[in-house]
Protein 1
Amino acid sequence: ETLVSANCTECKHVVLEKPSWYQTLNAATGRMVYAEMLAGGGHASFIRRNAVCNLPFMTLQTFNKYTSLITNKSIESCNQIHTKSREIVTQEYAKVGSVPDQSGVLDIDVTYDGTWHTRDQHSNYGIGATIDAVTELVVDYQIMCKFCFLCISIFVSRTRKFLKKSMNN
């Protein structure tokens, strides 16, 4: 089981332990789908792994429901953590006399780091993070993709129409 834990570096208070969305899923299935997502696999990979373990088949629609729920709950948790991070950064800079300007912008020192997912050496996904230099907390992040989902869906739609048309002729 993969657990997420965030602790305060000063008082060691546990800010976040186990994701709360675990309770809303079928325990075993949800954890298996989550593990597949962490491994960078999709539905086809999940089906292959299940076949090796002699586990039941899961439709793409069901798999997508699980991944959607997991993704949405992860985003909620991430947003809560980032809100708390930004509050801490603002408090730390206030200690040295730096406060937000009239438009609410706080001038902070940051560093940026990013990486592409490299599992199987052909992933299309990457992430970049902006990290505050004083507190070393992530204050923002960006998930990147090497292709456009809109273009792909238009291509798939046109391909289906073409195939349907050619099959009828």
Protein 2
Amino acid sequence: MHITQLNRECLLHLFSFLDKNSRKNLAKTCHKLLEVFQDPLLWSLLNFHSPVELKKDNFLLGPALKHLSICWYSERVKVCNIEDWMKNSFQKDFCKRHENTVSDFLLDVCNRCPNLLSLTLSGCGHVTDDCILQLLKNCPNLKSLKLENCVRITDHTLEAVTRHGASLRTLHVDFCRNVTQAGLERVREKCPSVMLRAERSANMIPDSKPERKLMLEKASRKLVQL
């Protein structure tokens, strides 16, 4: 039996085991498999592990998307995982080239994926409060928002949660060093049903205090001299 002789349900099941590139390559072989690739039911879950993946055409965004994860780490390039003053030139160049990639992608999600239920962002250092605000407004069913090491996230995101996160049940802001204890307490007060986690966030040195960063730079230079 040839694969194209299988019914639509079986083909969707088979496609579900493939990664995005494999799905795209298989869809190029015939019109019937292209239709399966384009079926919204196939794209309820998306995981990305590199900024480059967001720019490819091997996936579909649409109302069927329920769960989205954008997480990346690298032993060579720890994208926004350490203080800016510690980054070498290669790391700075990498971050600059991908500065708006995630934010632009998430704004596209806002416009095309209103039924999103969960969003996980890790190491996405250029995502802003405004981007999360738009997501909360445009995805009213969002139940889980997990942010890790998103250094531009501040109390404005926490305020947006209290105003627009009516469906939210889980909020993580781990290693988001620019949120404060006051902001976290406000979420606990206004949204008692939300399971809030903020591991190593409000107690970390925030980017919003340049004098503290200057002190760290001086300390770092002294250590190098020693």
Protein 3
Amino acid sequence: MEDSESAGAAPPPGLSSLLPPREFLRSRKGQLLLAESVLSFIIFVCYIASLAASFMMAPLLEFLLALFLFFAYASKLNEKFKGVHWPLADFLRCVTAAIIYFAISIAAVSKYSDGASKAAGVFGFAATIVFAIDFYITFNDLVAFLKQGSSDSPEGHKTE
């Protein structure tokens, strides 16, 4: 009788409860946020090991922000906290990250000659592309949302 009860029961929560669900990891947003987090961490480590250590703060902040948003979306905090306009915050984060990564990558590649700075610059250009893809997708979602909201408003005013 214990075997039939334990077969239907869920496994006890452990370390696996901290991992995001597979559906989110397979989604486009989950993969982009994971790529942004990994690239930002690699760039951070490269800048620590390089002569361009003054640039290490931007990748650290972007890593922490991407990691926060990754777990916020994975645990569906965006559905629980409606006061924050999540797509707009994500769009602004991606735009600023793409611009900052592009600028510091150019500076790291052109100004410093050590290998770690060059690697950080190359990974920075890759991160610029990933963040640009993310803000393009987020921008399209934002525009569709705003068009949907604006098309509802004038029709409501015309009938009244």
Protein 4
Amino acid sequence: EYDNWGMNVNMHKTEYPRIGKEQEDPDLQLRHLKRCEEYKYLGSIISNIGTSENDTKQIVQQGRKCIRILNSLLWSNQITIATKSTIYRAIVKPILTYESECWQMSVKRRVDAVEMDFLRRSCRVSKIERIPNEVIRRRTKRTDTTTERIETRQLIWYGHVRKMENDRWPKTVINY
């Protein structure tokens, strides 16, 4: 089918996940392809295990990576805390909250830790100084946490799903 549209598929790079029973469809001709346990699709890790643990770990790692890249900017005393907060809302927060509507909240502590890491660097305070998180939040004028925002988004998504028709997949899965 790809050939009909003038597209090429590299069969050496192509992988497929096998989910469920070990039966193989002869029409698909998958015997030449390599099987994988998980793959990344639209930024999410799809796994045959069925858990989002790897997905959320990767998102937290990307948030930490972003903070490392911004490190010199965050420790700078020439940039105001208000500007650093804007950077957080524009760059780091979207990374940390990507697809968070569907997360299990077991990742909550990790997200809080990444957020506090950013805020401490913004205030130019090291963890060694042992200043409580509440003091750092007051200095940065943060009233809500990222995990509170995630919980709000989850409740909004839940409300959308409850209003869906009964034959829609998201509602079927939640009611399961």
